[in-house]
Write a structure and sequence with these properties.
With about 190 residues, this protein is of the alpha+beta class. The chain has helices spanning about 1-10, 50-65, 85-100, 115, 120-135, 135-145, 175-190, and strands at about 20-30, 40-45, 150-155, 160, 165. Strands 1, 2, 3, 4 and 5 form a five-stranded mixed beta sheet that branches.
Length: about 190
């Protein structure tokens, strides 16, 4: 049954709207913090299991396509098998040491752009996936359907606040962080 639903979603290019609802639970950052201060919490969004299964299946199809694109930057470390922050750091240290051995001066500018990913507009993301990575047709329709018209509600104990429309990136799905990161990284390093 799940296989049939997944195939139907991918062949029609439609991510089922019933799986776009996020259940947001505020989690206290540290047990020693004041529980009455909302700034001391971070939101964790739970999505239904089938939504996560569809994400993972779509990523399994899209990741090889993005990685093989001429627009994919070979220095992208995040969300790639065999690459990590440690391998990125080793590359930077090696490059600095190599420059020092040649008597050159090196300057390292480090930016934390992780919060910038949360501000990426869905239409811009989909357009870049299409133009720069060749995601077209039903795959693009599915991606657009996946990132639009999401809603969420906040739950504290047994209380649920009213369901409201939510921007995709406010409760983005973990597997798509990967694709989003890859497409965004390519823009900064061309």
């Amino acid at each position: 049954m799940l296989e049939r639903l997944a195939n139907l979603s991918f062949t029609t290019g439609i991510f089922p709207s019933r799986y776009k609802l996020g259940h947001v639970v505020p989690i206290l950052k540290k047990p020693t913090l004041n529980v009455n201060n909302p700034a001391n919490y971070f939101p964790v969004t739970n999505l239904c299991t089938f939504s996560k299964v569809l994400e993972k299946l779509a990523l399994a199809c899209l990741r090889p396509h993005v990685l093989s694109s001429v627009n994919f930057n070979r220095f992208q470390s995040a969300y790639r098998p065999g690459y990590s922050t440690e391998t990125a750091l080793l590359k930077v240290v090696n490059d600095i040491e190599h420059s020092a051995d040649e008597g050159k001066c090196s300057v390292l500018l480090a930016l934390d752009i992780s919060a910038a990913f949360d501000a990426v507009d869905q239409s811009v993301f989909c357009k870049r996936a299409q133009v720069e990575f060749g995601v077209n047709g039903t795959a693009l329709d599915w991606l657009q359907s996946f990132v639009t018209d999401r809603s969420q509600y906040i739950a504290v104990g047994n209380e649920h606040l009213e369901t409201a429309k939510a921007p995709f990136w406010d409760h983005f799905c973990s597997h798509y962080t990967c694709l989003r990161s890859m497409t965004s990284f390519a823009q900064y390093h061309q």
